[in-house]
Amino acid sequence: MRKYFVLVLGIALFACSQQKGFKVEVKLDGAEGQVVLEERKDGAWVGVDTADVVDGVAVLEGEVENPGAYYLSVMGQRAKSLIFVENAKISVTGKADSINFATVKGSATHDEYSALSEQLKKISDEYMALYQESRAASAAGDTAKASSLMEQVEEMYESTNTIQEEFVKEHPASYVTPIILGNIQYGKEATELEELVNNLDPKIQELPMIVDMKEKIARLKKVAVGQTAPDFTQNDPEGNPVKFSDVYSQHELTLLDFWASWCGPCRRENPNVVAVFNDFKDDGFTVFGVSLDRDKDSWLKGIEDDGLTWTHVSDLEYWNNAVAKEYAVQSIPQSLLVDKNGIIVAKNKREEELREAVEEFLAD
Q1: Residue 11 lies in a domain
Q2: Cα–Cα 20 to 30 A to 257, which of 60, 176, 184, 326?
């Protein structure tokens, strides 16, 4: 009887020792008011818990179904710190004015993320130093040295993508993997993404972020090279509906260009697109611009300032642009080359590659 009682007591003590839910103790120098824990859902910030700062400490509590990425901030401040929360006792220490450098302890998932982040940061610091050297060499007129340094910068930058992709492949059951896969998904074709997703542990494949990625892969397959571009209609700046197929069917080759006036890389690429358009518009080439702007005046000013004299449409819904969603656009600039039958013949050709692709197609 005594042995049975001891066994029951031991089980009870073990059960009581298990962490039910999470408890995040936040100590940030200079923090006042409240500390907020949020998650990102469907492009919006969703509150998970809020706690008052009392004697320099705020305690956030709740329960998560699976470990995942959440965001910590001080109420009223824009800066947020990504932390991986799991059902455990977690501590966050640092300074309120540099919360992104806060130290997180108690989350094994966050430890895994931190180890990878530190590896990537070391490489990032190195290639940024080389980048500054390259700029200095260029300013001094040493173009050979500047070019050589930039090649090293590009190689090191690419190595960070390789490291992240290897992490995804080697950690198929990690709750960190969806975030890393989200970082490297841009620019990948549907087949590449599908292979990475199919390699994941079944429990990871069921997470919302991966479910969304599977839906994106399905959309990407519909806009792959060789497929017929999905037709659509949106309004031009005057409010007139314009059907995409009515444009591409009248030209040998059409560049479907996703851009926005607020997008720096888009604006830097525009002079190149203008040059290619001017050189080949008489040979059957045109451009069809779809803007992810949300302010009409800014959109129109961007068109005028950059001399974009082709057809433009937009629903002024920013990242919720209906066409951008249908074409699985998650970063801009992004583009497709479509022939007069609506067949996608190339994707994301920029700078000299765009000119070469247009010239080669029209020469056939």
Answers
A1: no
A2: 184
pLDDT in tens, 25-47: 999 999 999 999 999 887 789 99
Q: How far apart are the first and last CA of the chain?
A: 92
pLDDT in tens, 181-195: 999 988 788 899 999
- Measured CA to CA, the distance from residue 87 to residue 36 in angstroms comes to 17
H or E element in which residue 143 lies? helix 143-170
**Does a cis peptide bond (omega within 30 degrees of 0) precede residue 237?**
no
Q: Is 133 found in the same domain as 100?
A: no
Number of domains into which the chain is organized? 3
- Is 140 a member of any domain? yes
Indicate whether 288 and 352 sit together in one domain: yes
Same domain, 147 and 84: no
Show Cβ contacts of residue 202 under 8 Å, excluding neighbours closer than 6 positions.
none
Single pTM value for the model:
0.76
Residues 6+ apart with CB under 8 A from 192: none
Claim to verify: residue 148 and residue 100 sit in the same structural domain: no
pLDDT in tens, 313-352: 999 999 999 999 999 998 899 999 999 999 999 999 999 9
Spell out a b/e string for 298-315, using b for 16 or more CB atoms within 10 Å of the CB, else e.
ebeebbeebebebbbbbb
